[in-house]
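Protein Entry — a single chain follows
Fields — amino acid sequence, structure tokens
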Amino acid sequence: MKFFPAVLLFAYAVLAGSLVHAQSYPDRPVRIIIPFPPGGATDTLARVVSQKMGKTLGQTIIVENRAGATGAIGSDAIAKAAPDGYNLLLATSSTHAIAPAINSRLPYDVARDFTPITQLGSAAAILLVPNNSPAKSVQNLVDIARKNPGRLNYGSSGKGSYSHLVAAIFQAKTNTLMTHIPYKGTAAVIPDMIGGSIDFMFESISVALPRVREGQLRALGVTSPKRTPLAPEFPAISETVPGFESLVWYGLYGPKGMPEDIVQRINAAANQALDDAEVKAQFTRLGIDPAGGTPQQFTQMVVADSAKWKRIATELKVALD
């Protein structure tokens, strides 16, 4: 019993140190890495959310694009960064659900090397074709592809990316064969599609819709289960191809081993940003549904989504190994 006061004193010191740690964070700018090129939906979303989070945290949040290897380069940089709360990653389905399902040689392990913070949102994609395409509808595109096996091509942000896998699912569901043309980002596909050298692609609503509104490209349908309020004139692809649907999610991670108090501070700042009316309005314009929630809820969602993509990759025999 004579050691009891000392134990209490030690516990108090640990608690006090933790509180001081939480109260002092952040005392310098925070970095969020976007593992894709500038101009895409992930990049835009990050800049919208980081601005509000920075105000809540009282520090500048620097958004850094580090593209390459379908998101693996930027993701690995955070996996190996200091777990001090100053290095964060805006991950997506591509980096943390699809990539692990098709690539056993990833330099990182999603479950082992990261600290989940929160899901930021989810969004559908749009099926796009050039203005000079003979396809005026999803059914037109399917009919043309069936009559010309392997002759139509589609662009993506890289082998094994979300845009690649969605197109692969579309082929499987429609019993068609098309040729995959991988790029280093979907933003790089757009000019070639406008020029007519790419026959179709799946792109995020936020990036695609302005091009469609300006008459540069034609939209055939959306990947959400139902029509989106953002563009109700475009049918859900499932209206033509039963059972076809696909959404991409966006989420915030840090390196493994982050202090729980800092995780909670970042989580609270992110959730506060997602609840902001201005952010909600910008998300609506981007075609993104805000999410939020706890790190535990985020983890459960990723586990379920990863299992789905693993099943799809196995069924479609898609692998990078």
